[in-house]
Amino acid sequence: MWSMDSHADRVGALAWNRHLLTSGGRDTLVVNHDVRIARHNTATLSGHTQEVCGLAWSPDGDTLANGANDNLLNLWDASASSRSAPRFRFTDHQAAVKALAWSPHERNLLATGAGTADRTIKFWNTQTGALLNSIDTGSQVCALKWNPFEKEILSSHGYARNQLCLWKYPSMAKIKEFEGHTSRVLHMACSPD
């Protein structure tokens, strides 16, 4: 049994990048753990003042996106060390940034979603730092999942409607809405087929 004890408080977010397991905690830190070695902590990244609640590595493994309860979205290079600053820090969301999803169709395209005081899905060019689009969904955005086969994105929501919405990208025309949950939908998974 191997214990990785790099946080001083609960760990609320995890993301894999090959042999790196990245964790985000209530202690405001993001930690990269190299699971191949005993001295696993390869970088402790500080870029938030509140709990880290969202983590996602880009498909190419070059960029880590992380969001937190302080409404900030940070982008880190894979080579970031404990002394590094984020490549980009975005302050556009008005609530906790939990929902993060990298596009499988376009390199450097990241979708982010935030809580009840924000209710938006934002699309970013992570190469330039440009905000490409922002859509008010009318509900807290809890999770985002790209369709790997079509240019579509699925969003799950909390207050006020606890629904799932399927959107066409880039028009963001709503294709379908799924209702029935009585509480927020925090996580989603895509069938492999």
What does it look like?
The chain has 193 residues and is mostly beta strands. Helices cover 0% and strands 48% of the residues. It contains no helices and 16 strands. The strands form four sheets. It has a four-stranded antiparallel beta sheet with strand order 1-2-3-4, with no helix packed on it. It has a four-stranded antiparallel beta sheet with strand order 5-6-7-8, with no helix packed on it. Strand 2 (20-25) and strand 3 form a beta hairpin. It is globular and about 50 Å long. The termini are far apart. The model has no long low-confidence stretch (mean pLDDT 95).
The gyration radius over C-alpha positions equals 16 Å
The sequence of SSEs as H and E is EEEEEEEEEEEEEEEE
Largest beta sheet: what is the strand line-up?
Answer: 1-2-3-4
Percentage of residues in strands = over 45%
**N- to C-terminal distance:** 34 Å
Tell me roughly what share of residues is in helical segments: under 10%
Q: How can the largest sheet be summarized?
A: 4 strands, antiparallel
Number of strands: 16
Category from helices, strands and their pairing: mainly beta
Point out poorly predicted stretches: none
* Overall geometry: globular
Given the structure, what is the number of helices?
0
* Average pLDDT: 95
